[in-house]
Design goal:
Helix 2 packs parallel to helix 9, helix 5 crosses helix 6 and helix 8 runs parallel beside helix 9. It contains 13 helices and 24 strands. The protein has 2 domains: 144 residues, Lyase, Ornithine Decarboxylase, Chain A, domain 1, CATH 2.40.37.10; 258 residues, Alanine racemase (TIM Barrel). 30% of the residues lie in helices and 25% in strands. The structure holds pyridoxal-5'-phosphate.
Length: 461
């Protein structure tokens, strides 16, 4: 199995992540544990900028914080001179608390509430990305009331959809995101923004999907977007200064995956934009991108402890770990595929096919189905890679499991960036209505017998 990202194997066969030994991390912070490698994150931020700049002079990379949004991560992205894409009041709050200047923030979301829009206008976010006409009108009203200039991009639905290897130019407008180019809604939005008193139209935006491994759908989408930019110029004599092509850059979940070729992306996209500007006599806009998974996906590893093994001869061997769908919902949600490594014995040759199951009360709570591992036993540590994006940010408390801790590792040092939740945290916001607290109907029970559990009360002989 090819190692990539932050994962190495020490001479004694133990997995090291960002220079930290897996057993040490498990001992110091417990499992399940999300481990984020700072060096990988910084490298990805720089790679993205360098690659675009190699082919185009005017770019902006904004980290899509939905992939993994914490104070430390927002600070890191800011330190790397990335802008930040937020899509909720909570992400905006986190970014501001982390010290990200509001003007570096793009505010997304297909259903921003009045309260969220007011918050964004009050703090002065750099760009609102308008997703629908209702939002546009509300934003226009709020900006007028606050007497604040608000710079906006309009999110287009270019009619191109991409899912990993496949992509289709659907021409369809059936999506909750964005304003249709084909049905004229996007142009209506342009007209309304230009007519509004306080909104300033900076550019257009498109995001066509996630985990995209192929450059072609981006090229198609960029062509549609640039035609739209040309149409705006022709119709209103207005030059859009920004073309935001969103995120979606695919990463490796398994060592056999081929991630999106970044340089190829940058080259082809720049070419489309340059050519389109040339033929339509437009000024070169700033190209913006919003990678989330690309920045943090491969930087993340999750460490589990094997708790139990159940062998059903001839059918399946289940290796059960102390986490599951609450900190990795992607398998259940998207049938995502991962590889596992026995972290305390990573050099041992795989010898049997097993399936790694989570501990939640769902038959579908599996982490890896049918993978080859060496013989394992309870107490062994299991690592799953590429868990940096959409894992912690999608984590839940299903079954009242506490969400794991997250550590940031760098050159052998591990710092806690999110504490493990405690049982006390779990009930901290629970309330018991007074009528229940006072004993309710008085019928409390049933009681289990004081000494030993017996079925006698339920099933008389
Ligand atoms: C508007 C927008 N930008 C950027 C992203 C980031 O996508 P990814 O993490 O796949 O790069 C998303 C993800 O849903 C998005 O909706």
């Amino acid at each position: 199995m090819e190692l990539y990202g932050s994962v190495q194997i020490a001479e004694d066969g133990e997995l090291k992540i960002g220079g930290c030994r897996a057993t040490r991390l498990a001992k110091d912070f417990g499992t399940p544990l999300h481990i984020m490698d700072e060096d990988v994150i910084r490298t990805k931020c720089r790679e993205m900028k360098t690659s675009l700049l190699k082919h185009y002079p005017n770019i902006l990379v904004a980290y899509a914080s939905k992939a993994f949004c914490t104070l430390a991560m927002c600070r890191l992205a800011h330190e790397e001179a990335l802008g930040l894409d937020v899509c909720s009041g909570g992400e905006l709050f986190t970014a501001l608390e982390a010290g990200v200047p509001p003007e570096n923030i793009l505010f997304h979301g297909n259903c921003k509430t009045r309260q969220e829009i007011e918050m964004g206008v009050r703090v002065g976010v750099g760009r609102f990305v308008i997703d629908n006409l209702e939002e546009l009108d509300l934003l226009s009203e709020i900006s007028r009331r606050f007497r604040r200039r608000v710079r906006v991009q309009i999110r287009l639905n270019p009619g191109v959809e991409a899912h990993t290897h496949d992509y289709i130019k659907t021409g369809l407008i059936d999506s909750k995101f964005g304003l249709g180019v084909i049905d004229g809604q996007a142009m209506t939005a342009v007209e309304r923004v230009l007519a509004s008193e306080y909104l300033v139209l900076e550019g257009v935006h498109s995001h066509i999907g996630s985990q995209i491994l192929n450059v072609e759908p981006y090229v198609l989408a960029a062509q549609v977007v640039m035609e739209f930019v040309g149409d705006v110029k022709e119709k209103y004599g207005y030059g859009l200064r920004e073309v935001n092509l969103g995120g979606g850059f695919g990463v490796r979940y398994k060592s056999t995956d081929t991630p999106l070729q970044l340089d190829e992306y940058s080259r082809r996209i720049s070419q489309v934009i340059r050519e389109s500007c040339h033929t339509q006599r437009l000024d070169l806009p700033c190209i913006m991108v919003e990678p989330g998974r690309y920045i943090v996906g491969e930087a993340g590893t999750t460490l589990y402890t094997i708790e139990a093994i159940k062998n059903i001869p001839g059918i399946r061997k289940y290796v059960m770990v102390d986490g599951g769908m609450s900190e990795n919902p992607r398998v259940t949600l998207y049938q995502a595929k991962y590889e596992a490594i026995v972290a305390n014995r990573a050099l041992e040759q795989p010898s049997e096919i097993v399936s790694i199951a989570g501990k939640h009360c769902e038959e579908g709570d599996m982490l890896v189905v049918d993978t080859k591992l060496p013989q394992v036993k309870p107490g062994d540590l299991l690592a799953i890679r590429t868990t940096g994006a959409y894992h912690y940010s999608m984590a839940s408390n299903y079954n009242r499991y506490t969400r794991p801790a997250v550590v940031l590792v760098n050159a052998g040092v591990a710092d806690l960036i999110i504490e493990r939740e405690s049982y006390a945290n779990l009930i901290a916001r629970d309330r018991i209505p007074t009528r229940l607290a006072q004993g309710g109907t008085g019928e409390i029970g049933p009681h289990l017998p004081a000494a030993g559990i017996t079925n006698a009360r339920i099933a008389p002989a």
